[in-house]
Amino acid sequence: MKKLLSIFVAVGLLALVGCGGVSVQRDWDPVYDFTKIDSYAWLPLRATPNIGEARLKRLVAAIDTEMAARNLALTADDPSVLLELHVMSELRLDLNQYGATADWSKDSNRSSQLNKGSLMIDVVDAETRELVWRAVADGKVEASASPEQQTKNFAKLARKLLDKFPPPVK
Questions:
Q1: CB count, 10 Å around CB of 109?
Q2: For position 4, what pLDDT does the model report?
Q3: Using only C-alpha atoms, what is the Rg of the chain?
Q4: Which positions of the chain have pLDDT values less than 50?
Q5: Do residues 122 and 83 lie in contact, with contact meaning Cβ atoms separated by under 8 Å?
Q6: 120: Cα within 13 Å, side-chain hemisphere
Q7: Are 139 and 23 in contact (CB under 8 A)?
Q8: Can you state the angle between helices 147-162 and 53-69, rounded to 10 degrees?
């Protein structure tokens, strides 16, 4: 059963994102000079059992597209920053209560299990190796997305994750 659940999560992780129900939190170093960033490279991608190689490639391509839209070049030679990707998922109990009945009847309450996925992008200064920016997206995992829909969903997710990168200069 656990193996079946892992496969189910792998099929849909971060197809999480028809993007409507995804929440994104961001944090960054307020004294870091983001104006000096002109290029990036990826830190080695860690094997992630919940996403699979094909989905990981689609996700990285979507992030690369968003970075290019910010005039940031992907390079192996002396990048300004390094990107690191973390993908996580977990099974959660979803309790739904309908109405304000006092008898806890079957009609007013139910529970179900849902998969919750998280994607984190870390931006690390290439010279100092210090974390300077992070975005984390959380949402429900959609298990039935086709490869084409996943590509669209990953594009939406990357846009949402990186919409405030780099942060505004004060």
A1: 14
A2: 36
A3: 19
A4: 1-15, 17, 19, 97-106, 108-109, 113-114
A5: yes
A6: 13
A7: yes
A8: 40
Would you say 15 and 142 are in contact if contact means Cβ atoms under 8 Å apart?
yes
pLDDT at 139: 74
- Which DSSP helix (H) or strand (E) runs through 121? strand 109-125
Q: Which residues contact 32 (CB under 8 A, 6 or more apart)?
A: 125, 132, 133
Closest CA relative to residue 169, chosen from 72, 40, 39, 31: 31
CA distance 85 to 63: 10
pLDDT given for residue 65 in this prediction: 97
pTM of the model: 0.74
Judge contact between 121 and 85, C-beta under 8 A: yes
- For domain 2-94+111-162, give its CATH number from 3.30.420, 3.30.160, 3.40.50, 3.90.1150: 3.30.160
Token representation of residue 90: 């977990």
